[in-house]
Request: fold
Amino acid sequence: MRRHNLATVIAAISFAIALLAGDGMVEALQPVRAAAYFIMLIAIVVMFRTRNADEYLAAIWGSATSVAFAALVLLLVFAPMLEGFWDGLTGNESGQDLTASALGMPLALASFFLANLWARVRGTI
Reply:
């Protein structure tokens, strides 16, 4: 359980660094972006391998993966509709500007980590 908790914190911090370094939001973090992705990958592998260590972690893992899946389904269903609505409302009908593939991975990881944190703060489901 201790490895899983530590891996969760490390993966969440690495994800935050990778997000801030992406698109040049924080230029000082740009050199560590690749390292953040690599550390996040290793931490997620550790989280995956220890996800069934006990019932508490299994419940947290289950709730976090369910929220991430639901967020992806909502993105894939509603993002094109909302983009078309916004383009029609503003009169900017330039085609598809927002791709679901560009938002899918960050949304899935962010929703997973937020649901994981919420389940830990609130207690198991």
About this structure: The mean pLDDT is 83.
